[in-house]
Amino acid sequence: GAGVSQSPSNKVTEKGKDVELRCDPISGHTALYWYRQRLGQGLEFLIYFQGNSAPDKSGLPSDRFSAERTGESVSTLTIQRTQQEDSAVYLCASSLLAGVGNEQFFGPGTRLTVL
Amino acid sequence: EDKVVQSPLSLVVHEGDTVTLNCSYEVTNFRSLLWYKQEKKAPTFLFMLTSSGIEKKSGRLSSILDKKELSSILNITATQTGDSAIYLCAVASGGSYIPTFGRGTSLIVHP
C-alpha cells in the first residue's frame, strides 16, 4: 500500500476509557501530522513529528492527549480518560519533509465516538 | 493568529453548472495556499499556489491566487455529481510548518 493508513477506521468507546489511534505514514516520509475534525468544522492541528521528534505540540487540547512516533514510521495518538467532546474524526497526514511546499498526504481517518 | 475564511460555507448546484469557491486569508509571512478535496474522511491534494496571477489547472478544476487581495478562487466547470465534496483551503506561512485550514465549502451537485 502506497498511501497513509490509519487504524481503527471507527472506534466507539465509553467516557473515561483510554483509546489509541494508529497511523502508518507513506514509507520515507519524515514528517507526520495529526489533525482533529469535529462534525462540520475545519481541520484542527494537534501535533507534528519531524522524524521521531515532535517540535510542535501546541495543538494538543489537554494533557489527556499524547502522541509518539517510533522508527520514523508509525505514530500513535493516545487519548486518556476520553470525554464526549473528544468525539471527532482524527486524521493523520505525512509529507516528505516538514514545512512549506511539502504536500501532505492524508490517511482515511479514524472516527472516534465517545458515549 | 493566522486566519483562513472560505465562502460560501455550502453550495448546491445541478450537473453542468460552473461554481466558484473563495478563500481569503490573513497570515504573517505568506508562503503558499493549498486546496484539498475531502470526500468521506480523507482530504486529497488539488493545488498549491505560491505566485499571484498564475492559474493552475487540472481537468475541469482551476485555481488562481491574488496576493494583493489576499485570496484565491477555485473554479469547477461542467460540474458532475462526483464533484460533491468538501473543498478545503489551507495557507502555509513562513513562521510555521503547519498550514492553517479554513472550515471548508460543502459542494453538493445534483444530477
Task: Explain what the structure shows.
The complex is a heterodimer of chains A (115) and B (111). Chain A has strands spanning 5-7, 10-13, 19-24, 31-37, 44-50, 53-56, 65-69, 75-79, 88-95, 105-106, 110-114. Chain A is an all-beta fold and 115 residues long. Chain A is globular, with a radius of gyration of 13 Å. In chain B, the strands form two sheets. In chain B, strands 2, 4, 5, 9, 10 and 11 form a six-stranded mixed beta sheet that branches. In chain B, strands 1-3-8-7-6 form a five-stranded antiparallel beta sheet, with no helix packed on it. In chain B, 36% of the residues are buried. Chain A binds chain B through residues 31, 33, 35, 40-43, 45, 48, 50, 55-56, 59, 89, 91, 98-101, 103-109, 111, and chain B through 31-32, 34, 36, 40-45, 48, 50, 88, 90, 92-94, 96-99, 101-104.
Kindly list the characteristics that best describe this protein:
heterodimer, A: 115 residues, mainly beta, seven-stranded mixed beta sheet, four-stranded antiparallel beta sheet, 0% helix, globular, B: 111 residues, six-stranded mixed beta sheet, five-stranded antiparallel beta sheet, 11 strands, 61% strand
Lay out the secondary structure.
The complex is a heterodimer of chains A (115) and B (111).
Chain A: E1 5-7, E2 10-13, E3 19-24, E4 31-37, E5 44-50, E6 53-56, E7 65-69, E8 75-79, E9 88-95, E10 105-106, E11 110-114
Parallel strand pairs in A: 2-11
Antiparallel strand pairs in A: 1-3, 3-8, 4-5, 4-9, 5-6, 7-8, 9-10, 9-11
Chain B: E1 3-7, E2 10-14, E3 19-26, E4 30-39, E5 42-49, E6 56-58, E7 61-66, E8 71-76, E9 85-93, E10 100-101, E11 105-110
Parallel strand pairs in B: 2-11
Antiparallel strand pairs in B: 1-3, 3-8, 4-5, 4-9, 6-7, 7-8, 9-10, 9-11
For the CA atoms, what is the radius of gyration of chain B?
Answer: 13 Å
How many beta strands in the DSSP annotation of chain B? 11
N-to-C order of helices and strands of chain A: EEEEEEEEEEE
Structural class of chain B: mainly beta
Distance between the termini of chain B: 41 Å
